[in-house]
Amino acid sequence: MQNTLIKIVKLVFFTFGIITTLVADPSTGSPTVRDTSYWSSKKSTGLFFSQQSFSPYFKGGGISSIALGTVIDINADYKKAKRSWNNRFQLRYGIIKMAELPVQKNDDHLEIDSKYGYQFTPHLKVTGLFNFQTKMHDIYELKKTGERGKRIGNFLAPAYFHLGSGIDYFTKDKWLSIYYSPINSKLTIVADRSLVNQYLPGIEEGRNTKYELGSLLRIEIKKEIMTNISVHTIGSFFTNHLDDFGVFDVNIENKLNFKINKLFSVNLLTQLIYDEDILFDIQSTGAEQPEIIGKGPRTQFKEVLNIGLTHSF
Predict the structure, then answer these.
(1) Are 152 and 141 in contact (CB under 8 A)?
(2) Are the C-beta atoms of 192 and 157 separated by less than 8 Å?
(3) Residues 6+ apart with CB under 8 A from 99
(4) Would you call 129 exposed, middle or buried from its count of C-beta atoms within 10 A (0-12, 13-18, 19+)?
(5) Which carries the bigger pLDDT value, residue 53 or residue 4?
(6) What does the mean pLDDT of the chain come to?
(7) Would you say residue 279 has pLDDT above 90?
(8) Could you tell me if residue 267 is left (phi over 0), alpha (psi between -120 and 50 degrees) or otherwise beta?
(9) Is the N-terminal amide bond of 182 cis, ω within 30° of 0?
(10) What pTM was computed for the model?
(11) Main-chain phi, psi angles of 22, to 5 degrees
(12) Are residues 225 and 255 in contact, defined by beta-carbon separation less than 8 angstroms?
């Protein structure tokens, strides 16, 4: 644990040093006096609710449930001449109550994303990227019956850090960004040692971190496709130069937002993940009582349809 904390501190200070250098006045080397006219921000919060109810004699069956979720999305962007700095903080949290079962968590995501760029052509930037993702606290498997399964996550268990630099192509109206980094560092931390085998299979006993050096391709689409309907998609593809080059870790998130009025909105969220290091129990098929016959990676997919209150400021 001590070694993990030391690595986190080093990474934070290294990132802070890069940012300080990038925003410094090139003529004096000291930070410039902040001029807020170069900054813009957008903050949005959402509270979403869903409910299902079935009578005891409903022929189709079903489980009565109530679900509540919240989303906080904060963007802070800096633009001056050829320099730009885009920052995003996102928090998602959801709970569900099914029948007589206790309240359980069904969504938990914490992400910080920072991208600094220097534009050298009308459509290209030299860009540095930092990304951090983790959970906030204990998360458990949620079985199809609604019952709680084994613990599968915690704060910093796992946590993913990406740090790299590369070239960022963007369209004139900024609706499309294609970022490629030939040298990208990825650090995976599992601070809870009881979860190490779930996220770092084959790691040396006593270790709970894994460093990878590889290439990262990130494609981002952010566009209003028609009045009050917008789409935001981020797809990340990482391959490790040091081991299994050509095998990609994939994470594709998509949000389709329908704005009803100033307060109400409907959004459809989807996420697809594939990671060779995340293993699942493989069960036999065809038997009345399936048995676990091994472990292996699997394509993960999640879809959420939210209806609720939103506020942007």
Answers:
(1) yes
(2) yes
(3) 63, 64, 65, 146
(4) buried
(5) 53
(6) 86
(7) no
(8) beta
(9) no
(10) 0.83
(11) -70, -30
(12) no
Separation CA 202–CA 193 (nearest Å): 14
- Helix, coil or strand: residue 11: helix
Surface-to-core class of residue 17, CB atoms within 10 Å of its CB (0-12 exposed, 13-18 middle, 19+ buried): exposed
In this structure, of 34-38, 85-89, 97-101, 241-245, the range with the lowest mean pLDDT score is 34-38
- CA dist 271 and 251 (Å) reads 7
Give the residue carrying structure tokens 């957008």.
42
Burial tier of 249 (Cβ tally within 10 Å: 0-12, 13-18, 19+): buried
Asked whether 76 and 41 are in contact (CB, 8 A), the reply is yes
Distance separating alpha carbons of residues 176 and 225, to the nearest angstrom:
13
- What sign for the dihedral angle of Cα 191, 195, 198, 202? positive
Domain residues of the chain, as ranges?
A: 39-312
Q: Which positions ≥6 away from 94 have C-beta within 8 Å?
A: 48, 67, 68, 69, 70, 105, 106, 107, 108
Q: Are 108 and 139 in contact, with CB atoms under 8 Å apart? A: yes
- The closest alpha carbon to 128, from 18, 231, 276, 227, belongs to 18
Q: What is the CATH number of domain 39-312?
A: 2.40.230
Instruction: Kindly state the tokens that stand for 145.
Output: 């019956």
Whether 147 shows a pLDDT value over 90: the answer reads: no
